[in-house]
Amino acid sequence: MKRKIVAVLMCATMVTMLGVGCGSKESEDSSSSSSETKEELSEDDIKGSLDGVTLKVGTSGLFGPFSYYDEDGKTLIGYDLDLIQNLQDILGFEIDGGVQAMDYSALTTSLAEGKLDMGAAALCATDERKEVMNFSEIYCDSGQVVMVNKDNDEGIKSVDDLKGKKVAVEKGTASHTYASKNLSDAELEVHDTITTAYESLEQGKVDAVIQDGPGASFYIKTTPDSKLEVVGDEFNQGQAPYCVAISKDCKYYDEINAAVKLLIENGTTDELYAKWCE
Q1: CA 195 to CA 64: how far, in whole Å?
Q2: Is the bond into 65 cis (omega within 30 degrees of 0)?
Q3: Which of 30, 143, 227, 245 registers the highest number of CB atoms within 10 A of its CB?
Q4: Element (H, E) at 45
Q5: Which domains occur in the chain, in start order?
Q6: For residue 27, what are the contacts with CB-CB under 8 A and spacing of at least 6?
Q7: Predicted confidence band of residue 38 (pLDDT cuts 50, 70, 90)
Q8: What's the pLDDT score for residue 240?
Q9: Residues 6+ apart with CB under 8 A from 49
């Protein structure tokens, strides 16, 4: 875990220096990337700086262990919900109507159109998203993995074995982007939620699912009767940096980003990863 956080902090430093995320192919023009903090804000500067401010905040509720529903089916829990609470504790803002849960497509659209001020849902800072929203420092990073059904022997041992296979991905995710760009020889089945992608693989309707490593591990760990397993090593590492997304219409980017950076530096994100992902 210590190695993961060191890598994340190195990526975060690069974001600050270059104004782009890990694996970005953008130019140095910052107009399509996250806003840059004009001056370093200290903990004293940001503590309570958003007292009296109300923000509209969104998440997915569909991606454990980062954002999902508790056993009651109503209470949102996970890494990102704790992260949002920590940001509230530092900055002092209120949330308009509570954290709103929606699928990734609606979430990113709402952020792009300014209907939400902030989103935390294991959102990857992709080049395409940077054109329509801003991103904080990287608080977690993961690669993708291949999941298969143990009952179906398709000879899939790694991502290199997906040629000619039917592969399910969740729409708008880093896995979807990777598969679209790199698996032209495979048949993609694009799902609105990762839940239905898992179901499709459980039922043998597809040969594999590509998913972020923590999400795949969480599903297998929390689904006792699952037939799914991860094969091969993580790939596409450094291309799925999780960041807090901030609408370009939101004028509190500097404060939110500084608070995320503080949570990284004081070990809070390390503690959240240990709590939710290990």
Answers
A1: 10
A2: yes
A3: 245
A4: helix 43-46
A5: 2-16+50-141+240-277 (3.40.190.10), 144-235 (3.40.190.10)
A6: none
A7: low
A8: 73
A9: 91, 92, 255
> pTM of the predicted model, to two decimals?
0.72
Q: List residues bridging with 138 in a β-sheet.
A: 243
Neighbours of 1 (CB within 10 A): 10
- What whole-number distance in Å separates Cα of residue 135 and Cα of residue 226? 35
Q: Is the pLDDT of residue 37 over 60?
A: no
Check pLDDT > 50 for residue 31: no
DSSP string for residues in 167-206: EEEETTSHHHHHHHHH-TTSEEEEESSHHHHHHHHHTTSS
Average pLDDT of the chain? 86
Distance between CA atoms of residues 113 and 216, nearest Å: 30
Give yes or no for a contact between 82 and 276, defined as CB atoms under 8 angstroms apart: yes
Is 8 in contact with 136 (CB distance < 8 Å)? no
**Number of other residues whose CB lies within 10 A of the CB of residue 206:** 24
pLDDT digits (tens, 9 = 90+) for 94-130: 999 999 999 888 999 999 999 999 999 999 888 889 9
119 forms beta bridges with: 58, 245
Query: Exposure of 53 by Cβ count < 10 A (0-12 exposed, 13-18 middle, 19+ buried)?
Result: middle
230 CB-contact burial (10 Å; exposed 0-12 / middle 13-18 / buried 19+): middle
Alpha carbon 183 to its chain's center: 22
CB 110 within 8 A of CB 116: yes
Q: How far is CA 63 from CA 42, 78, 146, 173, in A?
A: 32, 9, 17, 11
pLDDT at 268: 97
